[in-house]
Amino acid sequence: MSQKIRVGILFGGKSAEHEVSLQSAKNVIDAIDKDKYEVVLIGIDKQGKWFLVDSSTFLFNADNSKLIALNKSGYGIVFIPASGGEFSNLTTHEVCNKVDVVFPVLHGPFGEDGSAQGLLNLVGVPFVGSGVLGSSIGMDKDVMKRLLRDSGIPIVKYRAFKKGDNIDFENIVDNLGLPVFVKPANMGSSVGIHKVASRDEFENAVEEAFGFDTKIIIEEYIEGREIECAVLGNRSPIASVTGEVISNHEFYSYNAKYIDENGATFEIPARLSEGMAKSIQDLAIKTFTTLECAGLSRVDFFLTKDNTIIVNEINTMPGFTTISMYPSLWQASGISYPDLIDRLIHLAMERFEQERSLTSTYLDGK
Prior knowledge:
Blueprint: E1 5-12, H1 18-31, E2 37-44, E3 50-53, E4 59-60, E5 69-70, E6 75-79, E7 86-89, E8 95-98, E9 101-105, H2 115-123, H3 132-139, H4 141-150, E10 158-162, H5 169-176, E11 180-184, E12 194-196, H6 199-212, E13 215-220, E14 224-233, E15 238-247, H7 254-259, E16 264-267, H8 274-290, E17 295-304, E18 309-315, H9 325-332, H10 337-356
Parallel strand pairs: 1-2, 1-9
Antiparallel strand pairs: 2-3, 3-6, 4-5, 6-7, 7-8, 10-13, 11-12, 11-13, 14-15, 14-17, 15-16, 17-18
């Protein structure tokens, strides 16, 4: 029997999406094919410390999304640069383990924004998902939208502001109307997002958004259906069937996504004409390639009453919880959860081998 591939599941992290990452990691760990893969669990606490944790006790309150927490009973570790996947015990300084590939089930800053991806590049180990550039672009909603706009991909009207900028409410209303959405530029899972329709709501939302990021965006409100499409692949990505999010909250908020089991329902596949579904799938792939993504992404759209398709954003490491859209879309497309994980791991190793084959030394004239 061939030796199992050792997969490091990296989860937790310093961001406000820490608990979402714990839920996603739990589902990945439960679903991964244990006959093919040996799982190594690496938890990151909210202070950014890394721990090698036991698979049977790595979470407190694992089945309670409101109280779920990382069990830091393991010992601290650090990856060794240029080691090909080795890491050492922070206390004894001994090499304690090695992984063949890493699945960074990390959401938000310090995990999904290129930070972890850059570290894993320095370690010299394959990892699931986009590289540094695709991850950082996908995280920053302002930069993402600028690149999409310059590529002719339709986006919502918005304004971006940095901490300390003068933000004039009347000017926002004149340009974007009311209501508007106020969002941290670098955050996912609807953390820190508010839909506002008055000056008081606006000022409070801006203050909260700046609590999560030094840059925020303010977007026009689009009345329309929320359609999502999953993308899978590297150089030749494919798109899943489309799905529609029907929120039972005012919008598809953090609570609707992860806390309230009845917060939203998914209609998969979405009730769209064949031509409309194909147009959205094609635009999802174009968005994925425009933003230099790899491995996986979920592209979120608005579909207006006059059938205009607008790209809202991309998520380069979408949620993997039992109620998450990304695995659900692939399930409906004929790819099971374990098979999806298998494909993502092999895509990571394929991309790593392609990048490793590049020449790293240049001698002029030779």
